[in-house]
Amino acid sequence: MKHTYLKMALLSTALVATGAQAQDAALTIESWRNDDLALWQDKIIPAFEAKHPGIKVQFTPTAPADYNAVLNSKLDAGSAGDLITCRPFDASLALYQAGHLTDLSDLDAMSNFSDVAKAAWQTDDGAATFCVPMASVIHGFIYNKDAFAELGIEVPVTEEEFFAALEKIKEDGSYIPMAMGTNDQWEAATMGYNNIGPNYWKGEEGRLALIRGEQKLTDPQWVEPYATLAKWAPYLGDGYEAQTYPDSQNLFTLGRAAIYPAGSWEISGFNAQAEFEMGAFKPPVKAAGDTCYISDHTDVGIGMNAASANPEAARAFLSWVASPEFAEIFGNALPGFFPLSDTPVELSDPLAKEFVGWRNDCERSIRSTYQILSRGTPNLENDTWGASVAAIKGTSTPEELGVKLQAGLDSWYKPQN
Amino acid sequence: MTRPRIRWHIPVFLAPAVVIYTAVMIFPLVNTLRLALFSKIDQERVFVGLDNFRTLFFDPIWSEQFWNALGNNFWFFLIHMLVQNPIGIVLAAILSHPRLRFSALYRSAIFVPTILSFVIVGFAWKLILSPIWGIAPSMLDAVGLKSLFAPWLGKEEYALTTLALISVWQFVGIPMMLIYAALLSIPDEVIEAGEVDGITGMAAFWKIKLPLILPSIGIISILTFVGNFNAFDLIYASQGALAGPDYSTDILGTFMYRTFFGFQLQLGDPHMGSAIASAMFAIILVGVCLYLYGVQSRMRRYQL
């Protein structure tokens, strides 16, 4: 009696399992963007499933801080999803080298992306691309339009105008000129150094030259941004040394600070919090008419688990992610995360539109420390955080910082020329 | 003459503790020590002997961080020894005074922070000391001492001391409770006998009570030592894994975490991380041994 029950139970599970297999290919997506769960479930996945009946997609995010560790253990155990959201550069490259990600260079839709967009998910020689670029974030400055109007300040274009504006806000005294702290360190490097830097080292030109070893971090174009950062200090408000990232966000959205050195990922949060009108301006150039360079940093990609049971379905999904249709849904649902495909996308959020508009006027680059150069010990990205903070606080001169960073890099990095 | 029986109840009663302790303590510990002898080269795990330790102690980049973290650890410990334990003893002495009213209330109030999570303590103090929203600057302002305020947690020269004092605030209840219990166990007859001999007040504390609670102070010192050299949570919760500003609050725990699990673009290196963890283990082991054999065993005990 007992046996029959067990057999029947086994039989029925087997039937259900085969039944499901015959009907659909099911895909699971691994991601750290748990903030975007609703967007994927309500908009992106239904749009895809409508076009591809027979493929069922599930979005299963992990908390951002745990993502890398959880993903690695899932991949090693063979229980990871079919599609894998890719962190930029080395974290994903390591997965590709370990054989966890499939080479996607032959995917037709890859031609929709520029080389800069793909660089984050390529082998060092650019021969294999293993993730489809999904989104980038752009750096610049967000400002309080009301405050600017009240004080009669024009949006600064050159560095001189920028510091004149800061000085004017400081003199007036009703606003903190700029909201940034050095407590968490990364803002100083990400929203400071790598925000204004591309104008000095001429974007990709300098970044690639640094990787090739033709330029050094002691060269003026790499040192000068630190000198400029040092000039920010008097405008950062009292006690900026202990001011954290959320402090800065709150100071700005509460209307107590006039300018916020930003990444475009702030847009949706700021739209919800701030009660005044916001505008954005790009990193100021040295002289009017200079070519401007912006940091349009590739941040999110998506690739395919080499052990996926449904490679065909996964490829279909990836091709769709590379399509303009996906770009339009994604870009509008997440203002501030900009699709990377070459076809321009019409965005509805005014602030996001301003940011993405710079792509037409300026040369694009990515953060200088992300590709290859942060592979060894000491880690150049972490060192840049410390150096940017030291520059602002004035604890080291820009030249000393350049020498120190280059020495750290030289200790393990041998460029191939 | 019968052979001695095997006393089965001994292994049976020992087994659960031995099995659990081996599984969750001894095995991970030995495995960490083992992991420290390997390195990953071209996706392969290779045995490198003591190479990781050579890197840690002699490579300028690693050793600078290691000695910095170790030095900070000693400073952290020193502040606890100089501030937390004396205050704990004084509080216990006051609390054990027979004529103090509401002593149970004070005792609970001082002990409460100890049961709070590090995360809560870290964030609460960060807010209290925040130059923007904190109550510390406005309170100082109210008494006209605003000029004394500095963004302490953001300054290289103050940050570690500030964090050590926060930790003292949190844990001062522990030495207080232990000393309090020791003080209560001193029989009244001893004190009264002293009184007959003319030893009263402060003299009674220095000459009678303090020698009797010395063993407890010894235990507290060693608990503080182990706790401080294993510290991590408070620094991580308030300053993050980079232990800013400029690594001035970096202690062995945060250094190990950053190395083992990686940070931002820095990929984790379990082997170097294990080497640091092994070094921590060795430092604590040596410290505890020195203390147990050098101090504790020579301490005079009194039969009460």
Automatic annotation (TrEMBL), chain B:
It is found in: Cell membrane. The chain crosses the membrane at residues 12-30, 74-96, 108-128, 158-183, 212-232, 275-294. The keyword Cell membrane applies. The keyword Transmembrane helix applies. It is a multi-pass membrane protein. InterPro entries: ABC_transporter_permease (IPR051393), MetI-like (IPR000515). Residues 70-293 form the ABC transmembrane type-1 domain. Keywords: Cell membrane, Membrane, Transmembrane, Transmembrane helix, Transport. Pfam families: BPD_transp_1. Belongs to the binding-protein-dependent transport system permease family. This is Sugar ABC transporter permease. It comes from Sedimentimonas flavescens.
